[in-house]
Amino acid sequence: MDPIPKDNLTGALRRDSVKKNVAAIHVSGKLSLLQRKLSNVLLLNAYDTLVTQGSHRIDARTLCLMIGYNSNDTETLKTALRGLAETVAEWDMLDDKGRQEWGVSALLSFAKLSDGICEYAYSPALAEKLHDPKVFALINLNIQRQFTGGHALALYENCFRFVNTGSTGWWDLDVFRRLMGVDGSDYYKSYKQLNAKIIKPAVAEVNKVSDILVEPEVRKMGRAVSGIRFKIKRNPQLAMMNIDDGAGVRGGLVYGRLRDLGVSDRLARQWISQHGEDHVAQKIDFVDAQGGVKSPARYLSAALRDDFGSDGPPEAPPRAEVSARAARLKRVQELVAGRSPTQRDAVKRLFLNQLGASGLRNDFESHGWMSALNAEAIFAFWEELEPGAFDGL
């Protein structure tokens, strides 16, 4: 899944990351992956007014888009919110005067869905602690969307804040079980089971999808494992993840010709993978034959998308086809205008996440929903988001 383009967001939702005070605040119980992602997005949405407003609001559809849950299944969302309201957060830290303070609170004091809006609140005491800037981890929302396992995301959250020190320090196994949400399970009292079912899979996923690499180390008392820590370093391959170089495409003649035309590395490899070298070479020959094309990369993109160029330049589309496209574009504008600013930002970002090619992204960022290069993809996107949106046009 592509990163969230932060240039298209406003307010608190512009941020890639959310301050999450995990050093001193522990969440009891088992949070599902959806609940964990949901709690991070709710905190991000509320952060700027966390201690000044009693409750916070977010469009429910936007909320689903933010957590990568593109669904109208409100029952699942209700279940996730109910779980957060039933989950206990506990803290044990120094107060402003240096005195030890212990406290406990429901993670959400209430949550409700009404007319497509999710309203929720934190208890005043928990809100104050969550907003405390002294101890926090930056939970990257782009990265959290990549996780498929709740334990892996929990491990990432609890390790990332130590990335600059290189190690989490030693955790007693009971503390670690609590951080992973398995402290109430007799099954995981055995380190063998804990390691096989929780630690190894979580470490593998963190190292695969996140911006850090973690390596567990154990401390023993006699023959029994008594503590665990994780060595942490930045993942230098993050920027290269999900990029398949294929069978040496960068060394091929077609790849070189694409790069000479100004096509980006990623887009060149995408076209070769999608269309094959021979077909792409044929389209390049067609573009070269036109002579004096001002934007050869864009022209080539259109040739590949609409499959013209084999038998001469494309013919002008019939008037009826032009009218139909104009009607659908107008409908897209109406669909966008009917959403709140926050929801428009989220929908725009969701569509951008589906555009893997930088050329297509650039055209959409320049022309928005009127992007000619992305027209068909835009229509398909809105048809999926709003089934029947173009019926009768």
TrEMBL record:
InterPro entries assigned: Initiator_Rep_WH1, WH-like_DNA-bd_sf, WH_DNA-bd_sf
Gene3D superfamilies per the UniProt record, alphabetical: Winged helix-like DNA-binding domain superfamily/Winged helix DNA-binding domain
Residues passing through the membrane, by range: none
An MF annotation (GO) of this entry: DNA-directed DNA polymerase activity
GO biological-process terms attached to the record: DNA replication initiation
Pfam families for this protein: Rep3_C, Rep3_N
Superkingdom, natural source: Bacteria
Name recorded for this polypeptide: Initiator Replication protein
Domain called Initiator Rep protein WH1: residue spans: 18-159
Family: Belongs to the initiator RepB protein family.
